[in-house]
Amino acid sequence: MSATAARRAAHAALQAVARGALADRAFAAALAEHQVPTRDRRWTQELVYGTLRLRGRLDALLERVVRGGLERVDAPILEVLRLGAYQLLEMRSVPPHAAVSQAVELAREVGGEGAARFTNGVLRALVRGGAETDFPREPVARLSSWGSHPRWLVERWVERWGADVAERLVEANNTRPELYLRPVGMSAAAAVAALEAAGIAAQPVAFAPDAVRLTGSATPAEALAVVPALVQDPAAGLVVRYAAPPAGALVVDLCAAPGGKAVGLADALATVGGGGAVVAGDSSAERMVRLRENLVRLGGALRVLPVVADGRRPPLRTADVVLVDAPCTGTGTFRRHPDGRWRLRPGDLETLGRLQGGLLEAAAALVRPGGLLVYATCSLEPEENEARVAALLARRPELTLEPAPAEMAPGLVDDAGFLRVEPWRQGVDGAFAARLRRRPDRDNPDAGR
């Protein structure tokens, strides 16, 4: 007997992530390399992403049954143990004997007979009761072990919000993400009707009028064959709705890849009366491929111009609306991108802050007098959000904070006018955005500088 292609692919994906690859790319490459049958791909995805999501919990449980601790375990075998433990503890479709025997075969292929015997002993100990060990009650220790998050992040969140909110966030991050679409060229209600007519269960999203939630077992490909749409979390659509570009506007998206918000902005322009266009720029030619593919799939009617360019050196001189959807720590997207929590380091806040500041400076110079700058992140961290806005306003007196559009759903906008989507409240990705209006020239003491 040998390990299944699905488990080999899952192991290859985890090893690639450990070497620094993004989970989605590692997973796609592993599926192709190991020729995982289509019928097994959803199962394999659950195994990979679930293991990444609960890695901290799995390690805490394995630590109790590995003599000498996990530090003595070779990295490839540790990934085998994590995969086996996740199947034992979370995947009820897998009988315990199958989870153990398959992990043993995988360990044998990776590390030989000694690794196979070691894996067998560890996982059988886990079956005998290692998972029943009590976890710490102290909030930070519990949320970083049972909650499966890096301790330094948990400490930040507990200090800022208190233990109860931090626990709700951790629980939200450990929930399997739901599948959402953003219809393009049609309303959410029309998209739901079309999907249901095709036998695909779907619902509108009350707080996000541009989103549709798929509630059945349909795959994204099946849904996209029925309605023109993007696979997109509602938080991204809320940023577009918050930006609310006026009819005929020239909009520049400085950090566009993979292009979901650029498509949304173009769709919003078409909805408010046509005219205008979106220039979608990004420094990565590779990541812009997905935007071009989506534009072709959606029929080519959207007025989007993809441009490979560094957002700190925009390819235009002026624009009516500039969106800076800045690279960030992504702490609002750990449910969908669980590898991000393990990749992040405390110093990244400072490094990314410098990049965000440079992008905002370029955007401030690009937006025309009277125009709008929208700054957005998928981060929950104040250093990347309100602190970044405050620093820009201090440097640029020609910019002023502007209230959110009136049509935003209650509970999404705070007293300062910032958009705040919080995973523990809305059950979707986290997002932050701010609207900054540039004063007209007649009111701008620094006009022309």
The tally of strands reads 12
Instruction: Give the overall average pLDDT.
Output: 94
Bin the helical content: 40-55%
Number of helices: 19
Assign the CATH superfamily of the largest domain: Vaccinia Virus protein VP39
Distance between the termini: 73 Å
Tell me the fraction of residues in β-strands, as a range: 5-15%
> Which architecture name of the largest domain does CATH use?
3-Layer(aba) Sandwich
Shape: globular
Main beta sheet: 8 strands, mixed
- Unreliably modeled segments: 443-449
Number of discrete domains: 4
Top-tier CATH class of the largest domain: Alpha Beta
Kindly provide the radius of gyration, computed on alpha-carbon positions and rounded to a whole number of angstroms: 24 Å
Structural class: alpha/beta
As for the CATH topology of the largest domain, it is Rossmann fold
Keywords:
disordered C terminus, four-stranded antiparallel β-sheet, eight-stranded mixed β-sheet, alpha/beta, Alpha-Beta Plaits
Protein model, in words:
The chain starts with a helix and ends in an 11-residue tail after the last strand. The protein has 19 helices and twelve strands. Helix 14 (260-271) links the parallel strand 5 and strand 6. The chain is an alpha/beta fold. Helix 4 (55-65) packs across helix 5 and helix 13 (234-243) packs across helix 14. Mean pLDDT is 94; it is low at 443-449. Strands 5, 6, 7, 8, 9, 10, 11 and 12 form an eight-stranded mixed sheet that branches. Strands 2-3-1-4 form a four-stranded antiparallel sheet. The chain folds into four domains: 5-132, NusB-like (N-utilizing Substance Protein B Homolog, Chain A, Orthogonal Bundle), CATH 1.10.940.10; 147-173, no CATH class; 179-231, Alpha-Beta Plaits (2-Layer Sandwich); 234-443, Vaccinia Virus protein VP39 (Rossmann fold). It has helices spanning 5-18, 23-33, 41-53, 55-65, 75-90, 96-111, 113-127, 139-145, 151-161, 163-173, 188-197, 220-224, 234-243, 260-271, 285-297, 339-343, 348-366, 386-395, 423-426, and strands at residues 179-183, 202-204, 212-214, 229-231, 250-253, 277-282, 304-308, 319-325, 367-377, 399-401, 419-421, 431-438.
